[in-house]
Amino acid sequence: MSRKRATITDVASLAGVSIATASKALNGRQDVRAATRERVLAAAAELSFQPNALARGLLSGQTRTVGLLTSDSVGRFGIPVLLGAEDAFGAGEMAVLLCDARGDAIREQHHLRALLSRRVDGLIVVGESTSPRPSVSKDLPVPVVYAYGPSEDPSDVSFVPDDVGAAAMAVNHLLAMGRRRIAHITGPTHYKASRDREEGLRSALAEAGLPQYGQTLSGPWSQRWGRHAAEMLLMAEPEIDAVFCGSDQIAAGFVETARERGRRVPDDIAVVGYDNWEVLSTETRPALTTVDMNLELLGRTAAQHLFAAIDGKATPGVHRMPCQLVIRDSTSPPGVS
Amino acid sequence: MSRKRATITDVASLAGVSIATASKALNGRQDVRAATRERVLAAAAELSFQPNALARGLLSGQTRTVGLLTSDSVGRFGIPVLLGAEDAFGAGEMAVLLCDARGDAIREQHHLRALLSRRVDGLIVVGESTSPRPSVSKDLPVPVVYAYGPSEDPSDVSFVPDDVGAAAMAVNHLLAMGRRRIAHITGPTHYKASRDREEGLRSALAEAGLPQYGQTLSGPWSQRWGRHAAEMLLMAEPEIDAVFCGSDQIAAGFVETARERGRRVPDDIAVVGYDNWEVLSTETRPALTTVDMNLELLGRTAAQHLFAAIDGKATPGVHRMPCQLVIRDSTSPPGVS
DNA sequence: CTCCTGGACTTAAAGGTTTTCGGAAACGTA
DNA sequence: TACGTTTCCGAAAACCTTTAAGTCCAGGAG
Asked: Count of CB atoms within 10 A of residue A167's CB?
């Protein structure tokens, strides 16, 4: 808390040069004698001069700042994306202006205006689910990239996890482990994530020429639902040898109930979760095989493509980012665990 | 993505007035005839004019932007604080510039410079633990408030959860439930949180004239450690009727092992956790009685005090924010659950 | 009629930086 | 000496907005 900030004028007069020369010296440009540059740099250090980014941005029209507009930071999904983006930016000299719209369209508009008036160079919009959301980019003077939740407008740039592919990968892993009687428990059908994961499951089963055991069970994304669905499923389809769950919470609930009903995991029933939410997937017993959506990478990628878009090299379309299967004990072959 | 942005000059010339009049009309100031103001407003809407915050900030010296410097956003603790702060700011017209130092002092300095050069009006520093951290505020031209992790310098403004009081509250709850033989499992001793919570436990027990059962067991903040500690504790002190755990993860591990060893929770042993990490505290069975640190409120309070400090009304010192005991099934009296 | 008041509007400066352009000095060449 | 070239530096414009100060005019008071 202190004295007035030094300006380039102060630096120049202390060094005994004009502000133009001081500017050139500080920015490492030509046309400045080495000795003079030295003097300016010393003066700047002496005054602990920090160039005023506002003045600089006003002139150049570039703020080296991007806006991050999220609908739901509190969710588990927005955070890693945010971190990845912050990471990609932080590596350069970018700063991130964070706004949380709390799922409210009015507030979103409000934040959008605030960001635009601050002259951000670009915008990342982070969705709260993978369901497509209304575009925000119409007539905006800056490029926008959507992460996790894609824009409804296919001419926008969006990055989403490849849920379909990941689900197929999970099921193929179960098949490779010798399982043949596979059931599916997942989240609410109005989530695109639920529908995509089910689609992946079906295509993998179809390719293997196998039927799905039982109906797909849809319910909340909770552990409680996992327990409840487990009871129904074990009753209706007692001969299943594997379950693909739409989330780690559901999987954890399933495992708990299955064990209480006398089924061993993974010996009798193999279980695959989704999300790789570590507090669940690594701490439950057995540790869960699960899909990691690589959200941090997704955020980083979105940020990098925003850079590209700022430089005029936009890449329109919905880009599906590959997920990764993390194999743990819940799908080990019988007798191995 | 589009045409050049409109400036107040464009608005003024479209409305047929000078830029000064346009400015006054847009800012709702006096000395403008109603009809003129109408014309200006119409012109601004027509051009979808957004005042340039850079120019405004350059002139006024106020950016209406604050920096949020966190050491570990990925942790569970930084996020709620961040949300609370963002909430308090978002209510007004403030924006938040987010930087994550990833626990690296060099990177922190780097971000600090970046924030300062962007002329933020103030700074919130969010710690990754409640252990005091080096002050960053020396000779800074803007006010700083520390949240969660306090500054080592007592003349700074810091807000931390009242771990001592909360632990005492938790133990008093166990006493009120009729428990008398209480043990303690917690995190690593180099965490101030561990030491504070143990202190709270001791003072509550001392006040009740009761001994602590067994040594305090210190280990990682993990479910695995909770299981391990449970085995040791049940062996060494088989007659305990309650355990106060330093985190929900530890509590969840303890409950699991205790049940495997034939102890019923809460009938034989009551358990209190810490953090109210919902995925654990509400989804485990029985649901955990636990301490909620009200981190979002803490963040909001920190933000409000930063406002005050920006207005010259700083409130130095380490402020301990009250926590809240969330009572669930794991401490019900025997026979009630 | 003059003088004053106050309303409505304009002019100009300020804020901090970058950049373009021109000038001056130093030096080499004819 | 005259001239061209290179090197280093300074003056001034530009970015966009707000605001203090100034201008102009109509209308009321004396």
From this structure: 28
State the Cα–Cα distance between residues A158 and A137, nearest whole angstrom: 12
Alpha-carbon dihedral sign for residues B72, B74, B76, B78:
positive
B137 HSE (CA, 13 A, CB side)? 23
Residue A325's Cβ-side half-sphere holds a number of Cα atoms within 13 Å equal to 19
Of residues B101, B1, B5, B53, the one with CA closest to residue A122: B1
- CA distances in angstroms from B12 to A176, A216, B17, B21, B47, listed in the order given: 71, 63, 5, 8, 11
Strand order in the sheet with A289-292: A217-218, A182-186, A242-245, A270-274, A289-292, A324-326
Cα within 13 Å of Cα(B14), Cβ side = 19
Query: How many angstroms is C1' of D5 away from CA of A30?
Result: 17
Q: A283 in helix, strand or coil?
A: coil
Question: What is the DSSP secondary-structure string of B171-235?
Answer: HHHHHHTT---EEEEES-TTSHHHHHHHHHHHHHHHHHT-PPSSPPEE--SSHHHHHHHHHHHHH
pLDDT at A283 over 90: no
Q: How many CB pairs under 8 A join A and B?
A: 141
**Chain B residue with minimal CA distance to A97?**
B97
Please report, rounded to a whole number, the percentage of residues in chain B having pLDDT higher than 90: 81
Strand partners, A95: A65
For residue range B287-307, list pLDDT tens digits in order. 999 999 999 999 999 999 999
For position A219, what pLDDT does the model report? 97
Quote the pLDDT of residue A1.
38
Cβ–Cβ gap B98/A93 under 8 Å: no
pTM over 0.90: yes
Of A223 and A93, the one with more pLDDT: A223
Closest nucleotide (C1' vs CA) to B31 is C8
